[in-house]
Design goal:
Structural class of chain A: mainly alpha
Number of helices of chain B: 10
Oligomer: heterodimer
Strand content of chain A: under 5%
Number of domains of chain A: 1
Largest interface: A-B, 24 and 25 residues
Distance between the termini of chain B: 30 Å
Strand order of the largest sheet of chain A: 1-2
Structural class of chain B: alpha/beta
CATH topology of chain B: Rossmann fold
Helix content of chain A: over 70%
Distance between the termini of chain A: 26 Å
Largest sheet of chain B: 6 strands, mixed
Chain lengths: ~525, ~230
């Protein structure tokens, strides 16, 4: 009975899905099995990456009501960070120390809050000192950072540019550049970084207090051990990276590229999550009462992010080679069966007569499914997930239950941006790196979400797959032509029709179901 | 008698509107106090101001000797104030069990209170795995009250529990609220004067954002003039 009831209730949804399946079946009629298998797997690959962007975007929008237009840029930054860790581990290790030292101050947030609660400063002083402190911190860091040795590529010089490093690595030649060295005193530099970071973060905490003065915390007397311990841990990581710089770099360069790739993806995801958390706390949070400003903010951040990436990595596109696990060649390749692939790790594998790239068309969709299931379990089974689902519907009520929704906001923002960065790092070996890669996938993700219903998690998955299918099948028909009954010649869609087709799909679905496939009627 | 909750001359603005213009309410420990008044008088806003959901700009809110004004609402709630809002605010996408579970402030809250909650509302036990969407209005109201009972709350703020419910269910609701007031204090907003008069021991009348009259419910019931004047037909 419940099945029939749900069928009747969601009539339009099922009819729409049935029509889409019918369309799909007719679409594959004119194709050879080989072609449609390959195209189908490509669609799933695009769908998986789109899903990583879309799911994070919809989680953030659902709970926080923030349309994060910088999501595509953060996806791109994830790709560039992943590339850097993968191709230039030496740069990554060099950057680890200053990054850990400067960031470490942030985890002391609760300590600053407690100290500032104790310290009762006059109104005027507490208004001015954070700005002074912030300026001082910036000045200190500006003096120290340029002389801090980081082995870097050179965007202006072709043979030392990311393009060259990426290309050489793709050819199997890993260049290990010379290590940079100090021009001043290393100890002074370290102390300066530490002090600059501390001063900066305490000033930011002071700024936060000045803007909502009078707020008193209920847990003001507990000593925040957790944040003190994580502070010490970060300092230790920074020091270790400094003292054992050479051996860590050697170790990473000597690592099998599969492990290095995994490490790069994890690092990109974590730095994305960290970036997301910092972005939410410092920039998004003050603007919850002004949604339009938030929109402008994320738009501006997106533009700034793109420019920063251009300044650091340059404008030209470059490649990220696939890890060793997926670059086997020679005899026995392309692999005919899974066991043959396991023996040779071929780049390509034959599926039902079609030749597909293992990483792009097999691994990416699998990771997409893994992330889909993992986040689904997080949402359905954990307390955090319960709070997120409840908060999407009624934030005020969640707060009235005594739950610190703001902290959950930060976690969800970090999770969403982390997912985007993961998507970027994973997509990079298949799509290459370019400044515009974020915009493309953000547009895809937005269309996918509109199709699936903006805040619905299964909707994001279905929408992403549909967008992937439309995009890839139209591209395929651009090559082989589609036989339409009223045309003498096979019709070949031109490249501009590719994005247009997904938009058209969105328009049709929204006309039938204004809430999207899985959206809730308001 | 000592008061567990004291609201002293609070003023609250929502956007440019000055909604509360001096509300004073004293809630004696272990009793039921009713906030009465016409639609739009500011009763719901008073409850929300106590919780800090619409923070008051002036005045004092003192809970068990502690000033609440300036605190964030989740910190206020965590001190032991349960909220049963207007229109119930059940989480639709969560099952009945999850709706109760989410209200836990410490691990094991629900396990300890489960029996008490199910004796009070036997229906909920039967519906425990259904999503919130599938409940009727009365069942949602029971769930909303049950949710406020999961953690150790010392005061319950209950907004319009009888709204939109059938008379039989209202009877049940009255019995339940009376029973739970044995353990905690209740501040009740109620349009339905008959329900309020059956439950509350004392009352405060709010009109146009000001508290204008308070006293014992027993006196108010015998004062048709006041009822007529502030509450309309009774």
């Amino acid at each position: 009975m419940p099945l029939i009831q749900s069928l009747r209730k969601n009539r339009t949804l099922w009819i729409t899905l049935a029509v889409l399946v019918l369309l799909f079946v007719t679409a594959i009629q004119g194709m050879s099995t080989k072609d449609w298998v390959v195209t189908l797997l490509r669609s799933l690959s695009v769908g998986a990456v789109t899903f990583l962007v879309a799911s994070g975007f919809s989680l953030i929008f659902g709970l926080l009501d923030v349309l994060n237009l910088a999501h595509g840029t953060l996806f791109m930054i994830g790709a560039y960070v992943g590339w850097t860790v993968y191709i230039r581990p030496d740069t990554f290790v060099d950057l680890l120390t200053p990054a850990a030292f400067i960031i470490s101050g942030f985890v002391l947030g609760p300590v600053w809050k407690m100290l500032l609660d104790r310290l009762r400063l006059p109104q005027r002083v507490s208004r001015i000192w954070p700005w002074v402190g912030l300026l001082l911190a910036v000045a200190v860091l500006l003096v120290i950072l340029p002389s801090y040795p980081v082995a870097f590529w050179n965007v202006a010089q072709y043979d030392q540019s990311p393009v060259t490093y990426g290309f050489m690595a793709d050819q199997g030649q890993r260049i290990i550049p010379d290590a940079a060295s100090f021009s001043g005193s290393p100890v002074l530099a370290l102390i300066g970084l530490l002090l600059g970071g501390l001063l900066g973060t305490v000033s930011l905490a002071g700024l936060g207090r000045a803007s909502n003065s009078g707020f008193e915390s209920a847990s003001g007397l507990k000593i925040p051990w957790f944040s003190i311990i994580s502070y010490l841990a970060l300092i230790l990581i920074g020091l270790a990276a400094f003292l054992f710089n050479d051996s860590i770099t050697q170790f990473l360069f000597g690592l099998d590229t599969t492990w290095l790739f995994l490490f790069a993806v994890v690092t990109a995801t974590l730095s994305g999550a960290g970036l997301g958390a910092v972005m939410e706390i410092t920039l998004v949070r003050p603007l919850y009462i002004r949604p339009i400003y938030q929109l402008m903010l994320t738009m501006g951040l997106s533009a700034i992010g793109i420019e920063v990436v251009r300044a650091l990595w340059g404008r030209p596109e470059f490649v990220m080679p696939k890890p060793a696990l997926f670059t086997g060649s020679g005899e026995g390749c392309p692999a005919e069966t899974l066991s043959a692939w396991l023996a040779n790790h071929c780049t390509t594998i034959t599926v039902l007569g079609g030749r597909v790239r293992v990483y792009n068309e097999i691994v990416l969709p699998i990771i997409g499914v893994i992330v889909l299931v993992a986040v689904w379990i997080l949402l359905q089974r954990s307390r955090l997930g319960m709070i997120i689902r409840a908060g999407v519907q009624d934030r005020e009520m969640v707060e009235a239950l005594g739950i610190n929704v703001r902290r959950v906001f930060t976690m969800v923002f970090a999770l969403g941006v982390g997912l985007a960065a993961l998507g970027g790092a994973l997509a990079a070996p298949s799509t290459g790196l370019s400044n515009g890669m974020g915009e493309h996938f953000l547009l895809n993700a937005l269309i996918a979400l509109a199709i699936g219903g903006l805040t619905s998690y299964p909707g994001a998955a279905v929408g992403s797959v549909l967008v992937g299918l439309f995009e890839q099948f139209i591209i395929k028909y651009g090559q082989i032509g589609i036989q339409l009954p009223f045309m003498a010649e096979p019709f070949k869609p031109t490249p501009p029709l590719v994005p247009a087709s997904t938009v058209l799909l969105m328009v049709i679905i929204l006309l039938l179901l204004p809430q999207g496939l899985f959206g809730r009627k308001e | 008698m000592d008061n567990i909750l004291e609201v002293h001359d609070i003023h609250t603005n929502i956007r440019q509107y000055h909604i509360l213009q001096g509300v004073t309410v004293s809630v004696p420990r272990g009793s039921i106090t009713a906030l009465l008044g016409r639609n739009g008088a500011g009763k719901t806003t008073t409850l929300k101001s106590i919780l800090g959901l619409t923070p008051p700009s002036q005045g004092k809110v003192i809970f068990d000797g502690r000033e609440l004004r300036g605190m964030r609402s989740f910190d206020i709630a965590a001190l032991g104030i349960g909220f049963v809002p207007e229109h119930r605010a059940i989480f639709r996408d969560l099952s009945v069990a999850e709706n109760l579970k989410i209200a836990e402030r410490r691990k094991g809250d629900l396990a300890r209170k489960q029996e008490m909650i199910f004796t009070l509302f036997p229906d909920l036990k039967r519906l425990i795995h259904l999503p919130g969407t599938h409940l009727s209005g009365g069942q949602q109201q029971m769930l909303a009250i049950a949710r406020a009972l999961v953690p150790d709350n010392r005061v319950l703020l209950i907004d319009e529990p009888s709204e939109g419910l059938a008379p039989v269910i209202i009877e049940h609701m009255i019995a339940a609220i009376r029973q739970l007031s044995a353990d905690s204090t209740v501040l009740l907003v109620e349009q339905n004067f008959i329900v309020a008069s059956q439950l509350a021991e004392s009352y405060v009348i709010i009109e146009e954002g000001r508290s204008v009259k308070d006293g014992k419910m027993a006196d108010l019931v015998n004062d048709p003039q006041t009822i007529q004047r502030y509450l309309g037909a009774a």
